[in-house]
Design a protein that fits this description.
The complex is a heterodimer of chains A (188) and B (502). Chain A is α+β, with helices and mostly antiparallel strands. Chain A is 50% helix and 22% strand. The relative contact order of chain A is 0.11. By secondary structure, chain B is α+β, with helices and mostly antiparallel strands. Classes of the chains: A alpha+beta (188), B alpha+beta (502).
Amino acid sequence: MKKQNGIYNEFILKEVSKNFSNNKILIENIPSAENIIMSGIEKKYLNIMIFNRFLWCIISLIGCIISIKYIGFVEQFSYIIYISTLILWAVIFSLTGISFKRKKYVFRDHDLMYSSGVIFTSTVLIPYNRIQHLAIHQGFLSRVFDLASLQFYTAGGSYTDISIKGLTKMDAEMWKEFVSAKIEKIKK
Amino acid sequence: MSKLNKSIIQKFSVEQKQSKVGMVVIFFDKFISIVKNYAIFLIIPMWKDFDLILLIILILLIALFTAALTVIEFKYFTFQFDFNKNDFIVKKGFLKKTKLSVPLNKIQQINLNQNFIHKFLNLYEIQMDTAGSDSKEVSIKAVKEDIAFEIKDFTDFLKEKNIDIDLEKSNESKSLEIDFYTLIKTGLTSRYFQTLGFIIALFFGALEYLDALGINFIPSFSSFIKNGNFGFIAILVYIILIFLAVFASNLISTIIKFYKFSASKTNNNLSVSYGLISTKTILMNPNKVQVFSFTQNWIQKKIDLCNIIIYQASSNMNISSDKSKEGSKVNIPGANSSDKKTIFEFIYKSFDDNEFIIKPNIRKFSVNFFLIGVIPSILFFGINHFFELLSSLNYIMIQTIYLAVILFVSYRLYKNNIMSVSKNFIKVQSGFWDITTKIIEIHKIQSIVIDQEIWYKKLNLANLTLCTAGGMIRFSYMDYFILRKITDNFLFKVEVSNKSWM
């Protein structure tokens, strides 16, 4: 592995010395996204997450009861269904805290980064000069807790749009201003 | 403006109507769409007690209704150009009047299309693709050939007015044509698996449809499975029959779609036109190209042939309608390696040789083999054990063949998956039979997604997805350390680059 890394450094250096000879940028100077302390989201958002999961549980419970009552042959497996639903609930609720902790974001000079996920973790990186537009969303529950989500859209399709949930309304506004100013500056 | 012909300015400053013969086109267009939309309601009730006279009366009524609509649409549809404001204006509608004015510089591309009736009457459909999220697509259904080309020429001219190009000088140099023989070769060598899948899907779709109509084929089909002849020769015959069907449908569809394929350079654009029944003309702008992909399999490599697909940035990526996606995609069937090189150089103007090659972890092989080989085998073993479909000898034979095939397939998938990074380009190659290579320019990256399953954290493996405005490329089971380094490098290049991505 070290060998491959060494080859890569060599490759970059060769490239850099060939093409960026006037501005001194070496591999060590390219800012790394690896060792960055990311900030977590507001604690209040945990309430919303728990509420959402609770709602989900109730809906799934109703689904279970209805399917057991009305689909004939399911009845003999009813206890299996209940137990598996319970296990599912347990898993979901136990992961809530970790899931909350894993939602992290960071704004840097030239790009922003958002990571989330417990079992399937993902990190999305968007440079400011590729953002098409950004918007603040606020649902009913978020309004109760004075929270908002900040969403960034790119031309790369909805798969990669970042939506930072669980910021305070003020923070969301502030970050929106910050990024908008950055975008304006780049456009000029 | 001075270079525009005065007669053209006079001609298009006043309201113009579509060609009168064009009513035929509009009529058939409407008629077919009405019949298509409501055919289900017509066919199902009629299946049980079929009445020919009722059907004819119904069709005549629909035709009459369509004819009335056609006349109204024709009468109230006008188009003109406002040369002072550089706008293109369309007025339409009888009850609900609409006036569309499109600034000429907002028009992304103009396509001239022809379907069978257009061809017969020597007419063209003009389609203007506009940018903007609420993309109102402007289309003029049927105009005469000379008018169509006049409009296309001078709108192209007005659009690029700031780049001072004389229209007369635009030399249609270096055109690429794909002859009939090459099309046959392409048809016979490409898309085996997609077509096979399509035929299977069509077969089951047809079964379901017939079932809905009350004709039940499924019992006879399942009895065929149970009692049919499954000797060695019989299976061979079935396989040959399926292969013939795949070959035939590939050949026919390729020829219909790409008949008389020609591409030519005009000014900065590549203009591509093809089609047997309906001719399509697509204008491609190199700046809008996001992904350059080519597909080649083992046979095609031997005869030096590949299919190129060029994805352009589309204004309406979010609307996932097929039409908008088709419009932003340029397909070049049966190009040889020098054609490929010419097109690539035309689009990107450069080529890097200094490449850094990254290969996926061996897990790509083992996980694939486990998922599509071992798990289905276990399921199949269970099903066979309980329902006793096959005798044990046949079972062992089929199982061994299946596992061997999957072993080979997952090995090829692993071996052919290569990512290479150079100064300006990222290249990802994948596939087991049809090997697709996708190339993107680094500064056209919109965003980067790194994802990782929790059980690969210890092994330090992760997946990388690079998104552009015309599609994404993905490379999985990659060493996390290398991944971080190259994403930093990509981000750096995107952030310092002044080149526009579109």
